[in-house]
């Protein structure tokens, strides 16, 4: 059985940063993630996607952010159980939590921090009759390696941040990028929307609004989508790849059975310290919800920082926490 101070469910960017904050107050962490490597969605879904809202980095690739976080937490020597799903928890006689994974690994800790991102997730697929026929044959829901699109004709569908960001990125990679959206207005960040409009004006992106992709054609491999556009009806559109980016469908999985207050597939928390209704269990990052919640990595880092302070007091109620600026405190003196 593994014993630690904070058991972190989820090894995405927020879970990883929690290790750093906990290390500063001499708390050890062990992370559990169903994925086979740290990084969460950044590693699994869009490792080469640029991220623009990390302080100090005008732009950083998702994979580089994960590598930096791993380097940042290395002095604190966290434990990892990867490729296993957090399955059950129970309260022990000494007031701690005993968690078991789906493969039988047992981990005990006085505090659990759920940083599971969107939980178990799968891409939302458009209702196109023969969609599955072209999956991995020109239809992709996740962009792992943008280089496969170099000098290709690409059709992206969607109106959120992911569709906008990838359109901007692929405009410098593909020979032709077309963004199809069912409305004229976009849901993504205003800055990204403005960049797409500028790319459209300069001819680097074809912008097709009030439209949807309703059909796919090809012989063993995609070579054409069918677009239905308002006032134009259906028409064929040649392409090498179709990338529908309509977000992810989240599912909490076993966490939903842990007695936590759930609202619309997210865990409700107290914004004082991001604690749940179960003392000793916290939820940080995209998996939690509260009034004014923003699902940004930046916000998850903030939540992790406040959560660790509360976790220390939960573990050591009689001990005074002396927390200095990180420029003063640093990581020196952390003993394994």
List keywords for this structure.
single chain; FAD/NAD(P)-binding domain; alpha/beta; 5-stranded parallel sheet; 2 domains; 7 helices; 23 strands; elongated; 4-stranded mixed sheet; 336 residues
Task: Describe the model.
It is built from 7 helices and 23 strands. The protein has 336 residues and is an alpha/beta fold. The protein folds into 2 domains: 2-121 and 248-329, FAD/NAD(P)-binding domain (3-Layer(bba) Sandwich), CATH 3.50.50; 125-244, FAD/NAD(P)-binding domain (3-Layer(bba) Sandwich). The protein has a 5-stranded parallel beta sheet, with helices on one face. Strands 1-9-8-7 form a 4-stranded mixed beta sheet, with no helix packed on it. A 4-stranded parallel beta sheet has the order 14-13-12-18, with helices on one face. β16 (222-229) and β17 (233-238) form a beta hairpin. α1 (13-24) crosses α6 and α4 (161-170) runs parallel beside α5 (190-201). The radius of gyration is 22 Å and the shape is elongated. The model has no long low-confidence stretch (mean pLDDT 90).
The strands making up the biggest β-sheet line up spatially as 6-3-2-10-22
- What does the overall shape look like? elongated
Q: By CATH's scheme, which homologous superfamily of the largest domain applies?
A: FAD/NAD(P)-binding domain
Number of strands: 23
Order of helices and strands: EEHEHEEHEEEEEEEHEHEEEEEEEEEEHH
What's the structural domain tally?
2
Tell me the name of the CATH class of the largest domain.
Answer: Alpha Beta
Query: What's the end-to-end separation, in Å?
Result: 18 Å
């Amino acid at each position: 059985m593994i014993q630690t101070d904070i058991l972190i469910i989820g090894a995405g960017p927020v879970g990883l940063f929690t290790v750093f904050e906990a290390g500063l107050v001499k708390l050890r962490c062990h992370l559990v993630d169903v994925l086979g490597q740290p990084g969460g969605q950044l590693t699994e879904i869009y490792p080469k996607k640029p991220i623009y809202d990390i302080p100090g980095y005008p732009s950083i690739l998702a994979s580089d952010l994960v590598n930096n976080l791993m380097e940042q937490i290395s002095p604190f020597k966290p434990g990892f159980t990867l490729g296993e799903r957090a399955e059950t928890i129970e309260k022990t006689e000494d007031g701690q939590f005993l968690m078991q994974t789906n493969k039988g690994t047992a981990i005990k800790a006085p505090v659990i921090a759920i940083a599971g991102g969107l939980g178990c997730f799968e891409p939302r697929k458009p209702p196109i009759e023969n969609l599955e026929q072209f999956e991995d044959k020109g239809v992709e829901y996740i962009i792992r390696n943008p280089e496969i699109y170099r000098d290709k004709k690409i059709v992206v569908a969607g109106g959120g941040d992911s569709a906008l960001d990838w359109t901007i990125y692929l405009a410098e990679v593909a020979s032709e990028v077309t963004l199809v959206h069912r409305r004229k207005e976009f849901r993504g960040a205003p800055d990204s929307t403005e960049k797409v409009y500028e790319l459209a004006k300069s001819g680097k992106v074809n912008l097709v609004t009030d439209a949807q992709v309703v059909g796919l054609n090809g012989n063993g491999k995609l070579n054409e989508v069918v677009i239905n556009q308002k006032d134009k009806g259906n028409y064929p559109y040649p392409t090498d790849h179709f990338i529908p980016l309509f977000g992810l469908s989240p599912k909490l999985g076993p966490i939903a059975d842990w007695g936590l207050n759930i609202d619309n597939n997210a865990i409700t928390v107290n914004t004082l310290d991001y604690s749940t209704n179960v003392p000793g269990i916290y939820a940080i990052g995209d998996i939690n919800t509260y009034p004014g919640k923003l699902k940004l990595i930046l916000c998850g880092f903030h939540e992790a920082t406040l959560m660790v302070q509360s976790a220390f007091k939960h573990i050591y109620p009689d001990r005074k926490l002396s927390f200095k600026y990180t420029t003063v405190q640093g990581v020196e003196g952390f003993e394994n």
